[in-house]
Structures are given as C-alpha cells and as structure tokens.
Amino acid sequence: MTLSTEMQKLNEAIDVVKKLRYYIWDKYPEGKETKFYVDLCVSYDGNVVLINYLGQAIWNSEDDERHFEEGKDWWEPLLPFIVNLINEIHAEMKVVKFDLKKIES
Q1: Which of 27, 31, 29, 53 is nearest to 42 (CA)?
Q2: Based on the structure, what is the number of domains in the chain?
Q3: Residue range(s) defining the domain that contains residue 27
Q4: Residue 52 confidence (pLDDT)
Q5: Measured between alpha carbons, how far apart are the two ends of the chain, in Å?
Q6: What is the mean pLDDT of residues 25-36?
Q7: More reliable by pLDDT, 34 or 50
Q8: pLDDT at 93
C-alpha cells in the first residue's frame, strides 16, 4: 500500500469514527448524565490503520474486508461497512444475557 493510500484510509477511518461518536453523543438525552464511555477509536502504527470498538479491532487497512472493484479502483464506503459491523456486535450482545444462578453454581 502506498503512503498516499495509507493516508486516505487513515483520513477515512478518522472521519467515520468522528461521525459515529457525534451521532452517539447527539442521540443521548440532553442534560442526562452519561453512564458510559464510547470506546470507538482509530489507531495507526505507521503501517496499518485500525478501528477499535469495545477494545477489539473491528477493521484494519491491511485485511480490509470491504468490497473492492479493481478495474475501477473503488472501495465500498467505510461508514456503512463499520455501521453494519457495530450493529452485528450489538445484535450478538443482546443475545448474551448473564444468569447469575448458573454462573455461581
């Protein structure tokens, strides 16, 4: 990956995370104290761009799973791809419910 491509992916990832963080905070009721921290961030180690959510890497520029059309040099937009990944995580989280009686036994 060229430096130009890396910077494009880094800038796109930063833009996606900013939009999602603003969306989350804008949806939180005004005047109500937040009880959570939005663990959604971008990191870059000089080679790979990562988007982390809830402490887990959900996307990286090295193993980009988005749709790519070589002839057009076109990538599926990152925002809808990340939104779908986060929604999948949330759907899985709704399924997992702790049963204290089973845990303690």
Answers
A1: 53
A2: 1
A3: 3-104
A4: 96
A5: 52
A6: 67
A7: 50
A8: 82
Q: 78-95 vs 3-27: helix axis angle to the nearest 10?
A: 50
Residue matched to tokens 């060229």: 2
Q: 52 and 43 in contact (C-beta within 8 Å)? A: yes
| Paired tokens of 39 | 């663990």
Cβ-count burial of 89 within 10 angstroms (0-12 exposed, 13-18 middle, 19+ buried)? middle
The rounded mean pLDDT for the chain is 86
Query: What's the average model confidence in pLDDT over 17-28?
Result: 83
Classified as helix, coil or strand, 28 is coil
The number of CA neighbours under 13 Å toward the Cβ of 62 is 9
The encoded tokens of residue 95 equal 């399924």
